[in-house]
Amino acid sequence: MLAIDLKHPLLPRTPRQFGLLIDGKWRSAQEEKVVERTSPAHDVRVSVYPSGEVADAEAAIVSARRAFDIGPWPKLKAAERSRVLLRAADLIEQRAEELALLDTLENGKPLTQARGEIAGAADLWRYAACLARDLHGDAYTNLGPAMLGVVVREPMGVIAIITPWNFPFLIISQKLPFALAAGCTAVVKPSELTSGSTLVLGEILLEAGLPPGAANIVTGSGRQVGAAMVRHPAVDMISFTGSTAVGKMTVATAAETLKRVSMELGGKNPQLVFADADLEAAVDAVVFGIYFNAGECCNSGSRLLVQREIAGTFLDEVVARSRAVPVGDPLDERTKVGAIISADHLGKIEGYVTDAAAAGAEVRLGGQRLAAERGRFMAPTVVAGVSPEMAIAREEVFGPVLAVLTFDTVEEAVTLANGTGYGLSAGVWSRDYDTCQTAAARIRAGTVWLNTFMEGFAELPFGGFGESGIGRELGRHAALDYTEIKTLQMHRGPRSDWWLPRAQGAQSPLGSQATLS
Ligand code: NAD
């Protein structure tokens, strides 16, 4: 039985109350309804946010539109915008413990891990501040002496940002600072399960000097608030991270008003382990890859593809190390795997394992929820003997459940790796250069890690192929995605090219003389 410490000094005695941030002011929802969030590990009420409605989303959009059309945010010098983003990064660091605790209490992730996410998020705000200073267009001086072509980049407009519950603060920080760096204004809808840290970010942005309306935050359900943002004609672009199913709906709705979309969606990511790999490093990465964030991670290495000649011993070691993973109270600093986000989701995870077993797979470890004094926890689970057509091999389980398949050749490994509709990321483990390069070239995924897994850098673009998404976040193009291109064609000097030919030196009643240059 997992022990849960209800007397932990970091557990709040009363839930924290939040408001909506619209036009630089905090307010309650128009219908005064609220969403209460209970800690999935402790079953204690931790946060209360307004349950926004369509009218709240519309008020936020009107504010963001005004802040864009009238300013001042899009009209500021990049240096001034950059200063606000840098101040925000400093304030994020000053309030890091508070932010990490909120994400831990609302999501169930280990506090030690949440601290790392907040530090990573502050780095993203700084990186975006750097990009803001280097956003520029192109000049074309090769169009002949009479023409200068200038391609300018203007901020895209009002961006609706919709985020999921699994990395609440990190994901908003992959979007909002880049949109702001480009000079856009935003309406943000965090997940209704984990809105707290995004609302604290609202306080931080006001303190950092962001003008009213440049970033508005409306909490509430996706169906009400999120859908209203996607439909609204005054929104220019949707930046969405979430499930592929909701992502597809969002793209379809956004198409009605031809909005630009950026979609970061699900994954069913393989780790390919070849017999010649550094197996010590590979086994550690396999265990990390599937249990990090309790497997509730788009990048989760949820499929282990292992070469048949080492499959037996490698799998034994995966099982042994999985058994040793410390699951428990997220506030305990020794914990590596915390609670599962909701009771429904835990049932869904167990269902995948039950169905796989019924289809002939072998549950080598775990397979069901863990007995705990409070909250909901899933046992680290390893399912072997999986075949490619099983749901556990194709669909996103989004839990600490590893599906194991075997292969003989590089060809077969690549075919298995590409055998789902997803294409977010993959890991390849081999000491052979050719194996690594061949697999990396042929795997259809936005990120391929070679002899490492799930490392992330602000400098490197991130996003998916296929049903894992549209577009890329991070990297030096991240802020460019929030810009629109405008072409200026500028004639210089006397005109030499007439649509209706004119004689050299002919006088015009308009007072000009035709000249040839
Ligand atoms: P979800 O799709 O259920 O919800 C995501 C967001 O969309 C939430 O804020 C939700 O309220 C909102 N939403 C729901 N219905 C909506 C609608 N009709 N219109 C507009 N918005 C709506 O996803 P989730 O369960 O919160 O998150 C888990 C999913 O996110 C997983 O599939 C995971 O792979 C994916 N994810 C992807 C990445 C990535 O970068 N590729 C990162 C993290 C999570």
Defining traits:
517 residues, alpha/beta, 35% helix, 19% strand, binds nicotinamide-adenine-dinucleotide
Number of strands: 21
Strand sequence of the main sheet, in spatial order? Answer: 15-16-17-14-13-18-19
First and last CA, distance? 90 Å
What structural class results from the helix and strand content? alpha/beta
What percentage of amino acids are in beta strands? Answer: 15-25%
Q: What percent of the residues sit in helical stretches (DSSP H or I)?
A: 25-40%
Shape: globular
Ligand types: nicotinamide-adenine-dinucleotide
Rg computed from alpha carbons, rounded to a whole number of angstroms? 26 Å
**Largest sheet entry:** 7 strands, mixed
Report the uncertain regions: none
Average pLDDT level: 96
Number of helices: 14
Describe the structure.
This protein is α/β, with parallel strands linked by helices. It has helices at 54-69, 78-94, 96-107, 111-132, 168-181, 196-208, 222-231, 244-255, 279-291, 308-323, 343-358, 391-394, 410-417, 433-442, and strands spanning 16-17, 20-22, 25-27, 34-38, 45-50, 138-140, 147-155, 158-162, 185-189, 215-217, 237-241, 260-264, 270-273, 303-307, 362-365, 381-384, 401-407, 425-429, 447-450, 469-470, 483-491. Helix content is 35%, strand content 19%. The strands form five sheets. It has a seven-stranded mixed β-sheet with strand order 15-16-17-14-13-18-19, sandwiched between helices. Strands 10-9-8-11-12-20 form a six-stranded mixed β-sheet, with helices on both faces. Strands 1-5-4 form a three-stranded mixed β-sheet, with helices on one face. A hairpin with a 6-residue loop joins strand 6 (138-140) and strand 7. The protein is globular and about 95 Å long. It binds nicotinamide-adenine-dinucleotide. Residues 162-167, 171, 189, 191-192, 222-223, 226-227, 230, 241-243, 246, 249-250, 264-267, 298, 396, 398, 424, 464, 469 line the site of nicotinamide-adenine-dinucleotide.
